[in-house]
Design goal:
The chain is of the alpha+beta class. The protein has a single domain, classed as Histidine kinase-like ATPase, C-terminal domain (Heat Shock Protein 90, 2-Layer Sandwich), CATH 3.30.565. The protein is 31% helix and 32% strand. The protein is built from three helices and six strands. Strands 1-5-6-4-3-2 form a six-stranded antiparallel β-sheet, with helices on one face. A hairpin with a 3-residue loop joins strand 3 and strand 4. Helix 1 packs antiparallel against helix 2 and helix 2 runs antiparallel to helix 3. The protein is globular. It starts with a strand and ends with a strand.
């Protein structure tokens, strides 16, 4: 299953990549929100863009936590380029897990708060990728 609103470029060699792994538990989402805000600030995103991205990461993680296998970990990969931040969050899932439909409210939130959002479930692994481009030069 793949859901996408726009294509996501893969980070190029030389892009900054930060990997964080936390338990798949809502108590640890503040770590990912804080990392998101810090990296977006590094790109000089506007304050409202930073907050939008924090909310989007939180929503994506909530979608994944709902289908996470017991004892799973959220793996978060941040790729920083000159004008964009890509956040990819993944988790091992329960058997038969499905993410909400692209027409769901959760997806409407993700697509409203980011430049693009996509997801895939492959086997027992689900990933959501968010791309946000800075709106000013």
């Amino acid at each position: 299953m793949t859901q996408a609103t726009q294509a996501h470029p893969q980070p190029a060699v030389g892009d900054d990549v930060v990997l964080l792994t936390v338990p798949a538990d809502g108590d640890y989402l503040s770590v990912l929100r804080t990392a998101t805000a810090g990296l977006a600030a590094r790109l000089h995103f506007a304050l409202d863009e930073i907050e939008d991205l924090r909310i989007a990461v939180d929503e994506a993680c909530a979608m994944l936590l709902a289908i996470a296998a017991r004892g799973a970990e959220l793996e978060c990969r941040f790729a920083v380029t000159d004008d964009a931040l890509t956040v990819e969050v993944g988790v091992d899932t329960v058997r038969g897990a499905r993410l909400p439909a692209e027409s769901s409210f959760a997806w409407k939130v993700l697509t409203a708060l980011t430049t693009s959002a996509s997801a895939e479930v492959t086997g027992r692994q689900a990933k959501i990728r968010l791309l946000t481009r800075r709106t000013w030069g």
